[in-house]
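Annotated sample (chain length 351).
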Amino acid sequence: MMPTGHSVGIFLYFCGPMKKTTLFLLVLLCFSVAAFAQRQSSFNRFASFSGHIDTQYTYDEGSNTFSLKRVRLAVTGEPVTGLEYRLQADMAGSAPKILDAFLRYRFKPFLNIQAGQFTTPFTLESQYSLLKKEGIDYAQAISRLSGYNDVISERNSNGRDIGVMVYGNLFEVGEDPYPIIKYNIGIFNGAGINRVDVNRAKDIIARVDVHPFVRNLVLSASVVAGSYDNGVNANAASNRFSVGGEYKDDALTIRSEYVRAHIDNGGEKLSYDGYYAVVGYWFDLTDSSRLRPIVRYDTFNDAGVVTTLYMAGIDYWPLAHLRLQLGYTHSYAPQSSAHRNILQAMVSVSY
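Output written by the structure step:
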């Protein structure tokens, strides 16, 4: 559904003044294209408009606040058969930023190419938008080792980087075909979003997903062979790997991953690793509303400092474009015997 003039006004009210002229022009262009597409439905293949707004409430021992977590605006299209593009910006926070800006071409199911800025193929959970995954936040191992709240602070980049990637599906089986193997392999700067490379090396990131003759089951492994500038060595090692699996059908989701990193911190070799397991089950309340209870166990070893999170939550969609989330997390740090209780709520509107 395309936005009306009233929804445009509401959106701009939430966004506040744009600090970057180019980003403001991008937003203006997106709305102009969307308005035109509303009148010319045949134009949708060239430009399709979408996005979401996430408003969060957090309460714990050190916080009692509302926050505008995300304000996303995206334009996608397929101007030529097989050639697709995506442009996505986030206006939340003090500095609006471009998240996605890429082209991809689908040669064959087994060979596709994508170039620009986009989510790297490391780990299973990082491939999910927060609007579609279970829970309000990513698991610690994903957040800390997949470029969100990363252990290397320069890589806090919403899980994205600039590079080129090939991907595809192999060995399709079944009456309703699905691939036994999916692969992704790419070369990236390793510097995060909207940045040029800071050294002469590149990060190699690869993931392989295997469906062992069961459509809804996937076993996954991914790896990063990378480097970064640690202030002493411009090509210091930052190597990571993950293994995991997921079962997901229309009602049940079960997913678990183990993620580990070995990083050279100025001659000191640091190790990080984490594990999570999450379970959720959908209950259909009406034709247009669904509710999903969620539980998650989540532990992370931050170079010797361990934090374990026990989370229980509710994911409720009363309408197709309205999502309400409520989550309670108990945090335990065994080294200091520290306990924390965290309550979070999120209201998301997609369009």
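Annotation: The CA atoms of residues 23 and 96 lie 7 Å apart.
Annotation: The two ends are 7 Å apart (CA to CA).
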